[in-house]
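TICKET: design request
STATUS: open
ATTACHED STRUCTURE:
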């Protein structure tokens, strides 16, 4: 997917204006992870859903348990320009120029069909400077996002230095007790424990460092459908400092 870089601001595409005036900044766990929540991020969220209906969703990566479609580049450019100053306030220690990737996502894989990697919490990468955004655009029985601690190592976030130790410990866990059952993780047992969760209210968004162990909160008994109007639709974005 093409990467959008921050540039001089375009105006908001029709229906995509942001309303990020009242962010709530909080922290969780003894490791003081920062999370920023914004209720009502889009002034017209139904416009985003209408645009999602027109997209061609497809399976893009083996890790994500569903289908995705890229956001319009004009929308990405606007979101980046509007959110970059806020990301600097919330997460950067000095002024930073950001780049981003973003797409619509719908969880569709039935619990019984989940691959082993999809039954466990994950990270979006090991770079602590990469910021993830989840914008929830569904009114289903499914929830938001949960965060986890790996029991045997105590790790809650992974860096490039941590990852080999974590991977070896997780392999040892699985060898000792087996994989968790084919289901979306809830409390994280037996290898993880849940340390925080956000509810995923309609048109709310959260921003957090993508190297924190996390997973979507999926009700294993509720339907998972591919229709953007009825499924667990989100907009996912990753922001990272520009390379040049």
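STATUS: resolved
RESOLUTION: sequence designed for all positions
ATTACHED SEQUENCE:
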């Amino acid at each position: 997917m093409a990467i959008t870089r921050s540039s001089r601001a375009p105006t908001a595409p029709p229906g995509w204006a942001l309303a990020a005036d009242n962010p709530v900044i909080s922290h969780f766990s003894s490791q003081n992870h920062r999370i920023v929540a914004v209720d009502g991020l889009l002034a017209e969220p139904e416009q985003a859903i209408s645009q999602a209906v027109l997209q061609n969703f497809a399976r893009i990566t083996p890790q994500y348990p569903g289908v995705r479609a890229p956001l319009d580049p004009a929308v990405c450019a606007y979101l980046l320009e509007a959110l970059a100053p806020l990301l600097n306030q919330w997460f950067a220690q000095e002024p930073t120029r950001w780049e981003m990737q973003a797409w619509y996502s719908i969880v569709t894989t039935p619990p019984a069909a989940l691959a082993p990697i999809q039954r466990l919490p994950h990270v979006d990468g090991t770079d602590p400077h990469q910021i993830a955004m989840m914008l929830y655009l569904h009114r289903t029985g499914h929830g938001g996002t949960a965060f986890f601690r790996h029991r045997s190592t105590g790790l809650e976030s992974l860096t490039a230095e941590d990852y080999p130790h974590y991977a070896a410990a997780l392999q040892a866990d699985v060898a000792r007790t087996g994989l968790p059952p084919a289901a979306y993780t809830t409390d994280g047992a037996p290898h993880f424990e849940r340390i925080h969760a956000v509810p995923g209210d309609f048109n709310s968004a959260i921003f957090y460092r993508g190297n924190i162990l996390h997973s979507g909160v999926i009700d294993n008994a509720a339907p998972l459908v591919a229709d953007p109007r009825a499924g667990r639709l989100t907009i996912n974005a990753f922001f990272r400092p520009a390379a040049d």
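CLOSING REMARK: The first helix runs from residue 45 to 53. The CA atoms of residues 53 and 227 lie 7 Å apart.
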